[in-house]
Specification:
Helix content is 74%, strand content 0%. The protein is mainly α. The relative contact order is 0.06. The mean pLDDT is 80.
Length: 108
């Protein structure tokens, strides 16, 4: 004989009732907090600020999405130059471009 199943229906009812009471109390507290003057003032003071870095990333993303992803003709000419051994890297120009990119990204 399973003793633990004797009152299983009553236990479920009690647990359900307690859960409903807890949810009702929580909702009542939330609605009461939302209507207090402090809560109203707090809601009015909430604000979002965006860092300059995030604004720079957003600007770059918008610029990149409005432009074509890449110039196919330029890519083909670079591929040919690389495969023919004619492409030379200008280290100074590359370093300047990297610094410009970093300045645009982090807004120095």
């Amino acid at each position: 004989m399973a003793i633990n199943k004797v009152n299983s229906g009553q236990t479920a009812d009690i647990q359900s009732t307690r859960l409903n009471q807890t949810e009702s109390q929580s909702k009542a507290q939330q609605s009461q907090q939302a209507t207090t003057p402090q809560a109203t003032a707090k809601l009015a003071q909430d604000a979002v600020s965006i860092t300059p870095q995030a604004a720079g990333l957003d600007k770059m993303q918008r610029t990149m999405s409005s432009e074509a992803p890449f110039d196919k003709d330029k890519v083909e000419s670079l591929k040919k130059a690389i495969s023919n051994g004619q492409y030379k890297v200008d280290h100074n120009k590359l370093a300047d471009k990297l610094l410009d990119f970093e300045d645009n990204l982090f807004g120095n």
